[in-house]
Design a protein that fits this description.
2 copies of one chain form a homodimer. Chain A has 154 residues and is α+β, with helices and mostly antiparallel strands. Chain A has 4 helices and 5 strands, in the order E-H-H-H-H-E-E-E-E. In chain A, 25% of the residues lie in helices and 32% in strands. Chain A has a 5-stranded antiparallel sheet, with helices on one face. Strand 2 of chain A pairs antiparallel with strand 2 of chain B.
Amino acid sequence: MKYFEDFAPGQVYALGTRRVTAEDIVAFATRYDPQPFHVDEAAAGASMFGGLVASGWHTSAIFMGLLAATIKRERWASLGAPGIDRCRWTQPVRPGDTLQGSIEVLETRPSRTRPFGLVRTRSRLTNQDGGQVLEIEGTGLYALTPQAGEAAPA
Amino acid sequence: MKYFEDFAPGQVYALGTRRVTAEDIVAFATRYDPQPFHVDEAAAGASMFGGLVASGWHTSAIFMGLLAATIKRERWASLGAPGIDRCRWTQPVRPGDTLQGSIEVLETRPSRTRPFGLVRTRSRLTNQDGGQVLEIEGTGLYALTPQAGEAAPA
């Protein structure tokens, strides 16, 4: 397991990649963000985007998918997050894009009142051309390293 | 149509309601945030949440769905958004919750360089008990009122 104490400012972790299809874009947006430029090829072509683009919330959810897979694969002792401090959809995500994620540790501090630590991070998604499509700053909660005699979290 | 000039600080708009089921929670999380407390009833029961809870990104996407429906129903001249400035998942969303949305205008200003206006807002989702589950601050882009002789946006 990777506990709170194992994180330090300056660390950067690769989160892997995910390819985005037109079907993905339309399926997410139909349910959660049915604005014309997310669900309708023709209307999107006539919009300022010039074609179908993913909802920013879809792009954010794809980032979360990559982070969750990393948490599981590398056994990070994540306890969730209270929210995010800043999120920018810096460039459109289009059908066929392959997005690559990374997360950088900015700051770590133990909670003053609760038995976990806070890890502040800046995360990015970039596309196959190196263009940044997403930047998120936020704070995650992580379990502390168990002391001798304590059980580790499941 | 409701254009940039029609928004003013202090306005609050109701965004309607949406009921969240266990199936919704698991379906979203399976694809985008498969942490145990979002996808596995038994693991969620043993977690600090004491039961299945929605991914924060799912809660945010539900808010976007209510906003997008309002934009369409009330014909707001929305041009999308560059991101969000702050997002807090202030209380868990659980199966059976009915979430109610609202959006409050904090500030409006025309873009200095582009032909649209910026509307800064604070949005909230509350559950059927009045508990706030989501708070988001961000800025949306809205088309300007067409001048005489100009075509309105589609």
